[in-house]
Amino acid sequence: MEVRHMRAMPLTIIREERMDTPEEGVERLRQVVAQQILPMITNHRTCRLLSPPLIASTAPPPSGIIQRHAFLELGIIVDGVMGIWWRGQLTSCPAGTVLVIPPRCPHLPHAPLPQSPAHRVLWLIFPPHQCIAHLCEWRDNVHFVGTYCVIDDEDITYLGHRIWREQRQRDEHSALIVYGYLLSLLGRILKAPTHPAIPKYERFSVVPMTSEPLVQTVYRFLWSNYNRPIKLADLSDAVAYSPAYLCRRFRQLTGKTIWQVLRQIRIDVAKRLLALNFSVATVAEMVGFSDALYFSKVFSREVGMTPTNYQLQCKRKGQ
Known about the structure:
The chain is of the alpha+beta class. Helix content is 45%, strand content 21%. It has eleven helices and twelve strands. It has helices at 22-44, 154-168, 174-191, 200-204, 213-225, 232-239, 243-254, 258-275, 280-286, 292-303, 307-318, and strands spanning 4-6, 15-18, 48-50, 72-86, 89-94, 97-101, 107-111, 119-126, 131-139, 142-145, 149-151, 194-196. Strands 1, 2, 3, 4, 5, 6, 7, 8, 9, 10, 11 and 12 form a twelve-stranded mixed β-sheet that branches. The chain starts with a strand and ends with a helix.
């Protein structure tokens, strides 16, 4: 497949909206896999696999929050064309492309392309012993995010990592081997026990009821990006105010600092993830902490107990 590398364009700040309810999210995930992704891949009889360039470019990224996850991530372009910036290059990914994003690889999905084409993507991330899947769609400069679904099947995690390993060690047989792994992975998604984890639209329900657009915009930005390292400059660009005015005005309107709100959002999501039995290190990464020990200190200070004790408490309540 011809891979097109382009010059990075400025990233337009877009809003994020919900795609479905938790119950609809699990069913929609299986429908898209069964009715669109599997037929698309079986018709092609191969996988258009892309991974980051081996040699990083010095080109600057588009403006935006660069992602750098601790886990392997796969992205399958369901329809349309998505741009992704990684290791200094902007790549155009048409429908049928399977992206293999290694742990700690800096990247920016949904990077702007000419005409900003609409697209839909299935994302799979692989923390230890689990797989989390969600659909998202980009159209008319709005990012629609589906329910995050936890898939309880360790074989799916194994298959995801086998795809990554085969891509790194590829030879003349790799395409066929990866094709088999991918079909098996998608087939198991249709049968594996699956339940909602963190539906993104639930985040918006905690935005304070206020007519002040600044507060609404800040809360939405924090909920959309809490799992990434947020800089004040990123938020300042999103609301088009100077950093000093933004901090001062937000505190006047809410009585809280921006960082207090961000910390509370991260702790609230962490509680949900700990209750789902994710490891403390995994939860720390998923809510935007690069250091699990520091996350434990912050969690203990805010909640009054360590993440491990909170997890044990959730298990006892569930018995």
